[in-house]
Amino acid sequence: MTDIPEAQNRARSAGRGWQIGIGVVALALTGLWLALTPGGLLGKADAIGYAVCHRIDLRSFHLGERALPLCARCTGMYLGALVSGFYYQLRRPRAAGHPPRAILMALGLCAAVWALDGLNSFATAVPGLPSLYQPLNPLRLLTGSLIGVGLMTLIMPAFNQLAWHEPHSEPILGTWGELGGLLALVAGIDLLILTENPLLLYPLALLSSLGVLVLLTLAYSPISLQVLRKVGQARRWVDLWPALLMSASLALLQIGVLDLLRFILTGTWSGFQL
Q1: Which pLDDT band, with edges at 50, 70 and 90, does 13 fall under?
Q2: Residue 226 is inside which H or E element, if any?
Q3: Does residue 63 fall inside a structural domain?
């Protein structure tokens, strides 16, 4: 009987050791990344976008003469994912069920439209390749937003299933009305971007880069939960902070490595040139 408390104490000590180690690594990675990337909030946002987006000037919206951290399509995608995540947390927290098949098919159609528009846009950049229509940034923004909604709709239930001690079996998106409400909210954000009002674009630019970090953190969370042996144990958000911090560190590490490789290849923080 006396071995049980000792084993529990060792487990707690090991857990605290993991938490301290994760915190130290997270601070070191963050400090290094902040020191080596361009200055200012928009500079940091640019560095995040630099790791995941081509950042071609002509395919981006602008804050004055300055291109946003992400191209029009990626801006829509990551803002769409971020808005969807907040929407689900407000309406269906801890929901671990996938939407009905009909809604999944609708989201699949959105993905097909996103892919078609992306391929058409690529074709217009390659001399000699036929294209279906002249690509436009508003259309890139819209199709990106749709795929962002789809990505979060798939990722969030998986995260809830792995993270929570008692995940809810209800679907993350249950009705067409809920989908319509979410799409209307995302469309409203898109309209704000299309105004190209600097007072609106500045916070939205920062939020789009935050969306990159959020998506990558959620994508790495299964690894962190497994490594820390925390799968299905969280009862409150505070119980998840070691795993989320580890996942965010992995996300920042990926961003930093991609930043470094791209900078070595191009020698500039600017986007690709057509």
Answers
A1: low
A2: helix 198-227
A3: yes
99 Cβ partners below 8 Å, 6+ apart? Answer: 107, 153, 171, 172, 173, 174, 179
At residue 9, does pLDDT exceed 60? Answer: no
Tens of pLDDT, residue by residue over 192-207, are 999 999 999 999 999 9
Give the separation between CA 274 and CA 271, rounded to whole angstroms.
Answer: 10
Residue 59 is predicted with a pLDDT of 94
Confirm whether 35 is domain-assigned: no
Q: Residue 12: pLDDT above 70?
A: no
Find the domain containing 82 and state its range. 54-266
What is the reported pLDDT for 188?
97
Query: Is the CA virtual torsion 247, 248, 250, 254 positive or negative?
Result: positive
Q: What DSSP designation does 57 have?
A: G
The answer to the question of residue 3 being in a domain is: no
How many domains are contained in the chain? 1
DSSP code per residue over 132-145 = SS---HHHHHHHHH
- Residue 13, domain member (yes or no): no
pTM of the model: 0.91
Report how far apart, in Å, the C-alpha atoms of 102 and of each of 98, 109, 173, 184 are: 11, 11, 11, 19
234-239, Cβ contacts within 8 angstroms, sequence gap of 24 or more:
234/163, 234/164, 234/165, 235/164, 235/165, 235/166
